[in-house]
């Protein structure tokens, strides 16, 4: 039997996507469901492949089958291709399995020639409509099928408009358009050396060939290469009867959603324009009518449309985005597809549809994007608001805020105590500014990247932050900043958008975040699906509480160093670092111990029953000391001015101390466990604080599960040595208290060597936690602080990197190390607990990767926990179905 | 049949090392060869294992076999254990398969008690000798077998010396020693609660047990753990007749080498002392006689000894280190083992023995340590010289030098032009100092590690350098430095030892390096054996010439940035970097192009016929600019002093520029291919220079093989993008010249991600070169500059790391990445050329690893090429023998 190359719409169905392409299968499915789809047919993707296989010729029988299908369309419509009396006009569209840029889009009005044009004008009584349709056809066909530069057509059109003083295309009369059409045909003759084809069958043949050829256009090939789409799928061709919404008052065209795509409310939402074509709606000259008005205007059509909308939504089990046309009172359905929707709407629709029994909870989980959850959790600037952006920096911590500008932390505290909302604006922040950051609505800095102090602290306390805004020129003496020609004085109001990096003059309307009942329901579905646990990074009891409220199942990273940066503690920390003898150092440590213990008590209480991973001191000690260059300037100034005395001497001494601790590459310097090995007293104090706190809250009846994490291990002996030292300390504390408490020792995997030798390291680690921030830095050999401003963002925009590896985990490189480490770690210790505590722990594609790696948990910012919960559930649902189970 | 636990010396042989231990097998082999070895026997290692297996009891039959063997010894010697008339005295020694610290060494004179002592005195007529032997026996036995603190014995001995006014042990009389022996026995009684054992059989039994027990001493176990020696090998016990060289004028004792261990000359070399015991030789009270004198003094003994020496050397096919004793005119051979030797001697002996037909060329290659070659290639301080070390820094570049101290490069040039030898002493060096470094004999810096500018440049130009000598306090204004209380003024002479890091006051005698005929012969043998090629890192034509002279087969790394640091070029480079528009930048680049081309012309000529890998600009651009902090101080001073004017403004502008280019972690910043992607003009200039140079020398008839290396690639798209840009440039140059030249593109593998994704990267690379300096930094997450001073050396001394991974390649971690990269790279491109150009390329164990990985070449400093040639050959010879081939 001969191959079937052509399917009438009513012969196909929605499952035939591979053969008929997306558009063809959709049209077939609607036709099959009894909806009024303008008749048409689809030439299969196999025909496209056969076309190429036979040296760019239609396969045997295809053309005959197409003509037969056309006859069938003619029979259904009563029109005939090329018939002057009642001409059939068709559209020709490409349609591959997935929509693909670079392929031919659409030729409309195919079938027009001087004869059929006459017939069209006669039947519609509208010469302008007729000539406009004709010149559009020549233009589209000329460009797409005959490959003529479209500028040349536009040039003719513009010349005509200029000649007759028309501003818009619509200002041109029927006569003007007739002239244009003639000039278009003359252009085609000049460019191709042939007359524009008048035979509608010739037009159809050429259009089908053009669709086939567009499959192998350079743009399409590049697109497939990039997206790894096979080149042998081919494209289908759809030929469909034209219908016109501009045939008079009983005609029209519109788009509608089966539910409100902004709010999710379950009502028809959309608009239509009587006596208009799709292009007129886009042009925006007339105001469209709300879809609800149709019930009054065209009650029968409305009822019919509503019925189809319900049917399609139930059929596709998702909110649909519909296109329709009414021609002389008859409704035609042109397209249906899943509708795009807002974050609020996505969640509401998904949860509503579960309640309506339309979809399962698992499907609901798949219907919401993690980015939607992210949006819902932060205050957003109302997208409808008109704003004056005066600068753009790095989107360092999401959310938005308005407030009065203050230039120092103390004033931020003072003003906010008197009820003002403030935005703290600093050249860059340091530990001295943290008290101001905590009370501010948001933070704006002129310098620093996504790992700058401002960014890290802002994310950890959930404040919006725009960092590294280099166009913002701050003058601390005048207490003002200038940007983009605008001067903002202290006390003036600005807004910042930490999700986009924008700085805006004045206050702007905001949309408040809400953990709605629907969102909670959806996250509940996600929890019932996911296997990967979601923990949170939290340094303070208040963070731990937020984390728990957002559903965190543990603390995956408690950074102890942030505790030392607090105002009252930093001087003690500095005393400890600068101590010249052990007694002084120990005295300072003893004072720090009290603070540390109380921090841990608070966190343990908040996380009653859940694990808490505490990382021992990690950053280089000089981070706790004054800045070297500032000291250098002060000492140099004092010398140049001939100043003397104890104050200068103290500065000189400090300069020397800080100078001796400076590092060429602090990221790769004396930090992490290296510190612990050189100065074991600090670690010992911390472990003492952890165990004492655990024992104390344990006696209160709190169930406490401390896990002590040793950072920056690269060689097993580092871990072994530190662990052995600290086990002794822990034993001492427990002996002193006369009780025991169960705890774990583990390590960060954050340098490549740790991943490569994870089998050895696992001997001394009950858990691994991937520190993917540092692991990404060392695996790429890229300092995030330096790179984001200097080349990394350009790398992404130039497509050298697919995405910023500090935001989206690099699965190929860093991920390979993680896989090696998981496999080697589990080979040594099968029950080793493995998690991730880098920022990637809250990024959906990275969460999915962690799920596939079989990690026990991801740990992320408390504010991203809901995002990770959803992403972890989606990871389960996107697993390939196991066959034969 | 019962197990044989005991072997008489004459029953064993040299191949029974596993069973009899090294000492036992050696004594057996000498006995078997007919040499006069004092009779004795060996208790096997299996007996030791059986001892432990049966709960620390001698295995059945062992003691009886030992007694039987003893009887045999008695029969041979005519002496009897415990016999007052003619007492047999024996030594008892442990002897495992390999010599091992922590195990029992030796108990001498076993068999003495009051009775046998009387007999010994009677037979020797020497009461002092008798009592001395007796007290020594009690002391050794007490310490080693009875586990009594040896200080307690020394205390008694010292008290006696003080009492009688004796300075040395030898000042004590027979009576004194008799008293001491009695007090020793009293001590044993107090410490052990028992009398010192008088029964020689009891003594023997206890001594054998002590040897067995020493196998499991804490020190021995730790040693085996560290060296990965199995714990189940066990130790043998050797029991041997004592002979005495202090029996009169016809007795004596000595040591000798079969060849001169300092020069390698083929003559007996050593010394002996008549009427003396081994200890007397060590004590150095009497001057020993040269071995040649024996020919006159004891002609018969000399002839006999010479015969044995020849026999043993031929037997063992290596220079032997012999111990012998003459007792009453009878020669006894006590020990033979391969002799330690100097570098010169090792090479000469190996090559001579090949000429003598004694060993094969392959064996000769195995007889010389790569470290020996290293020594021979650098000037060394005469080890015999007495020196005053005033400071110790980092051994940053090997070799030694003496010269007058100068504190700046210009003066170094001036003085050396007038014929002075100078040592350049600087706080640290910068590109401004290079012209002074080139003319200096050596470089001493107060700051900076093994990758500091001083160290890197010194190694690359083959000058000795001591860096980071923190105790050296330089006062540039007074033009002097102080260290260890000594003040050295400019013009004073110092010496530095770049191999040890020592700084020495004054001039010292030196040993000049020599590429002797023997060394060349040996390296020739190595070349005929090795498969791994040896290339060199060379930045200048003069380096390339040295490299070639030392046998390099290519240039594996030509660092183009060093070229830009030269005095006349640096200002142009700075102009290029600071250019505000493309035209200015291009003008500077055009001027640099001329220099670059000439550099390459010189190198290509020098390497006629061999490949030259040229790395495109790698370091961050700010390295070429003035130091930020120096500028900051200058500008701050100017401001504080109220200075104004164009000079200050220029500085301010420069400060701003340099400030904007500063990086938090320059090691991980904007450098390597990242620079090339952000500023493609520099790379384009370099490729233009390379191709123009290649075409020019090609027309001279030089065979030129340029390989263009793109540094710091982490993602395939970096390489792809840069390569595509540069291929266009290369094509342009070749079109302009109307000729073609063959060249390669490749990349460094120096960040972990490159290794992990080598399969992708190999698509665009014809060669890989492992940059193991940076790869080690990123794999460990350790900045070498920061770490070596702050924790890395402590890590090594505390055994956290087995060695400094920047000197000895970390095979477990970094090596694993290299293996992954080689495998993945070759899977994509089977003929990809893979080499290493990090400093490890000249380190023997790393060279061996590279051989095992199957690299094509190692590339190292021109001065280490001979070392690598030898190491590469040894790598072949240490391959496991393939069975069944």
Short description:
With 885 residues, the first copy, chain A, is an alpha/beta fold. In chain A, strands 14-24-23-16-17-18-19-15 form an eight-stranded mixed β-sheet. An eight-stranded parallel beta barrel of chain A has the order 26-27-28-29-30-31-32-33, surrounded by six helices.
The Rg value of chain A, from CA coordinates, equals: 34 Å
**Terminal Cα separation of chain A, in Å?**
38 Å
Which secondary-structure class do the elements of chain A indicate? alpha/beta
Biggest sheet of chain A: strands, sense, closure? 8 strands, mixed
- Considering DSSP H and I runs of 4 or more, what fraction of the residues of chain A is helical? 40-55%
Q: Which residue ranges of chain A are poorly predicted, with pLDDT under 50 across at least 5 consecutive positions?
A: none
Largest interface: A-B, 57 and 57 residues
How many helical stretches of chain A? 35
Mean model confidence by pLDDT of chain A: 91
Characterization of the model:
By secondary structure, chain A is an alpha/beta fold. The two termini of chain A are 38 Å apart. In chain A, the strands form 7 sheets. Chain A has an 8-stranded mixed β-sheet. Chain A contains 35 helices and 33 strands. The model of chain A has no long low-confidence stretch (mean pLDDT 91). In chain A, helix 16 links the parallel strand 16 and strand 17. Chains A and B meet through helix 24, helix 26, helix 28, helix 29 and helix 31 of A and helix 24, helix 26, helix 28, helix 29 and helix 31 of B.
């Amino acid at each position: 039997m001969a191959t079937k190359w052509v399917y009438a719409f009513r012969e196909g169905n929605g499952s035939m996507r591979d053969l008929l392409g997306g558009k063809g299968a959709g049209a077939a499915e609607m036709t099959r469901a009894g909806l009024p789809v303008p008749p048409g047919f689809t030439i299969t993707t196999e025909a496209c492949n056969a076309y190429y296989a036979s040296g760019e010729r239609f396969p045997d029988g295809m053309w005959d089958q197409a003509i037969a299908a056309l006859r069938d369309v003619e029979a259904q419509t009563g029109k005939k291709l090329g018939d002057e009396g009642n001409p059939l006009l068709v559209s020709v569209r490409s349609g591959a399995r997935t929509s693909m840029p670079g392929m031919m889009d659409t030729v409309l009005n195919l079938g027009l020639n001087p004869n059929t044009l006459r017939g069209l004008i006669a039947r519609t009584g509208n010469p302008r409509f007729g000539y406009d349709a004709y010149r559009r056809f020549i233009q589209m066909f000329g460009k797409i099928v005959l490959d003529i530069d479209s500028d040349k057509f536009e040039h003719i059109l513009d010349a005509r408009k200029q000649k007759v003083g028309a501003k818009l295309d619509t200002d041109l009369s029927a006569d003007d358009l007739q002239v244009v059409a003639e000039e278009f045909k003359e252009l085609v003759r000049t460019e191709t050396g042939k007359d524009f084809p008048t035979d509608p069958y010739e037009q159809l043949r050429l259009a089908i060939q053009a669709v086939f050829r567009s499959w192998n256009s350079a743009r399409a090939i590049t697109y497939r290469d990039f997206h790894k789409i096979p080149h042998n799928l081919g494209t289908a061709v759809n030929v469909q009867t034209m219908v016109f919404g501009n045939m008079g008052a009983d005609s029209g065209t519109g788009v509608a959603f089966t539910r409100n795509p902004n709010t999710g409310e379950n009502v028809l939402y959309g608009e239509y324009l009587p006596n208009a074509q799709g292009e007129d709606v886009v042009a925006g000259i007339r105001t469209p009518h709300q879809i609800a008005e149709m019930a009054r205007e065209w009650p029968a059509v409305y009822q019919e449309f509503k019925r189809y909308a319900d049917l399609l939504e139930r059929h596709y089990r998702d909110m649909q985005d519909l296109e329709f046309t009414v021609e002389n009172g008859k409704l035609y359905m042109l397209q249906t597809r899943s509708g795009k929707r807002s974050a609020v709407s996505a969640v509401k629709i998904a949860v509503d549809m579960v309640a309506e029994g339309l979809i399962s909870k698992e499907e609901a989980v798949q219907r919401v994007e993690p980015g939607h959850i992210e949006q819902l959790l932060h205050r957003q600037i109302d997208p409808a608001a008109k704003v004056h952006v005066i600068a753009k920096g790095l989107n360092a911590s999401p959310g938005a805020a308005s407030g009065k500008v203050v230039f120092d932390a103390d004033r931020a505290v003072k003003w906010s105590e008197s009820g003002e909302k403030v935005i703290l604006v600093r050249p860059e922040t340091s530990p001295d500014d943290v008290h101001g950051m905590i009370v501010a609505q948001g933070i704006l800095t002129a310098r620093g990247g996504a790992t700058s102090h401002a960014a890290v602290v802002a994310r950890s306390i959930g404040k919006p932050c725009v960092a590294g805004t280099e166009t913002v020129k701050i003058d601390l003496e005048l207490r003002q900043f200038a940007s983009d020609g605008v001067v903002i004085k202290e006390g003036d109001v600005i807004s910042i958008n930490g999700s986009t990096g924008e700085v805006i003059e004045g206050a702007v309307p905001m949309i408040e975040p809400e953990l709605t009942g629907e969102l909670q329901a959806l996250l509940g579905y996600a929890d019932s699906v996911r296997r990967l646990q979601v923990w949170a990074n939290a340094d303070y009891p208040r963070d731990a509480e937020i984390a728990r409220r957002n559903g965190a199942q543990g603390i995956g990273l408690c950074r102890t160093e942030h505790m030392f940066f607090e105002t009252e503690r930093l001087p003690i920390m500095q005393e400890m670092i600068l101590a010249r003898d052990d007694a002084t150092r120990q005295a300072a440590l003893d004072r720090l111990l009290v603070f540390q213990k109380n921090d841990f008590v608070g966190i343990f209480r908040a996380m009653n029953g859940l694990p808490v991973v505490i990382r021992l001191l990690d950053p280089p000690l000089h981070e706790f000391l004054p800045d070297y260059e500032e000291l250098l300037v002060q000492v140099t100034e004092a010398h140049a001015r001939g100043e003397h005395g104890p104050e200068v001497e103290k500065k000189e001494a400090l300069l020397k101390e800080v100078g001796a601790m400076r590092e060429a590459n602090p990221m790769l310097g004396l930090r992490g466990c290296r510190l612990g090995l050189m100065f074991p007293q600090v670690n010992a104090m911390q472990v003492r604080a952890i165990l004492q706190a655990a024992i104390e809250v344990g006696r209160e009846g709190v169930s406490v599960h401390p896990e002590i994490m040793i950072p920056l291990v690269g060689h097993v002996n580092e871990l072994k040595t530190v662990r052995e030292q600290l086990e002794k300390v822990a034993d001492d504390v427990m002996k002193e208290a006369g009780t025991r408490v169960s705890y774990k020792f583990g390590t960060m995997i954050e340098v490549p060597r740790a991943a490569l030798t994870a089998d050895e390291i696992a001997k001394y680690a009950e858990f691994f936690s991937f520190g993917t921030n540092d692991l990404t830095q060392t695996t790429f050999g890229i300092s995030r602080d330096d790179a984001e401003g200097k080349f990394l963002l350009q790398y992404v925009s130039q497509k050298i990197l697919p995405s910023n590896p500090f935001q989206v985990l690099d699965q190929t490189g860093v991920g390979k190390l993680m896989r090696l480490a998981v496999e080697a770690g589990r080979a040594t210790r099968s029950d080793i607990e493995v998690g991730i505590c880098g920022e990637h722990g809250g990024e959906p594609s990275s969460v999915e990767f962690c799920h596939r790696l079989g990690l026990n948990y991801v740990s992320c910012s408390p504010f991203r926990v809901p995002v990770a919960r959803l992403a972890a559930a989606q990871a389960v649902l996107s697993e390939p179905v196991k066959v034969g189970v």
